[in-house]
């Protein structure tokens, strides 16, 4: 299965333009010029009972945006078995960010890095014979599609233009290369 855009879930510019955009040298959030002061806090690494305290501390330090990774191997430790309980409750995490009055950004991978085992790639995927991790148009992408089908609906309901605080989603992290383009190479340092 080939990855494809889902504009009904993550709409193009016109649907969200009144909630988030870019003007000159700054973001505009809900009609106000906004500088994003961001910090990374990874919900999966923190006991749920400490979430609010950590977020309040970040806000008191002048942070207005929290970035979080979604660690795939934490949420799907076995093929088709998903865990969104306790400190893996992504929906509750985003709701807590909103309650504290912060914006959010999610770095959902599938690869995250962040000194997390296999960058978040589940071991059961890596153990499949012939599996090519992080390669497009392979069985790996079919597994990514399954993960995305579980994560994206949670993120969609927290988008800024739907009353939530989610400003952006980063797909993939530390990508090892780029497709060749006319006149270029696949070397990320080229261009």
From TrEMBL:
Alphabetical list of InterPro entries matching this protein: GH (IPR017853), Gly_Hdrlase_35_cat (IPR031330), Glycoside_Hdrlase_35 (IPR001944)
Ranges where the Glycoside hydrolase 35 catalytic domain occurs: 27-176
Keywords: Hydrolase
Gene Ontology MF terms: hydrolase activity, hydrolyzing O-glycosyl compounds
SUPFAM superfamilies: (Trans)glycosidases
Family: Belongs to the glycosyl hydrolase 35 family.
Name of protein: Fragment of glycoside hydrolase family 35 protein
Origin species: Candidatus Sulfuritelmatomonas gaucii
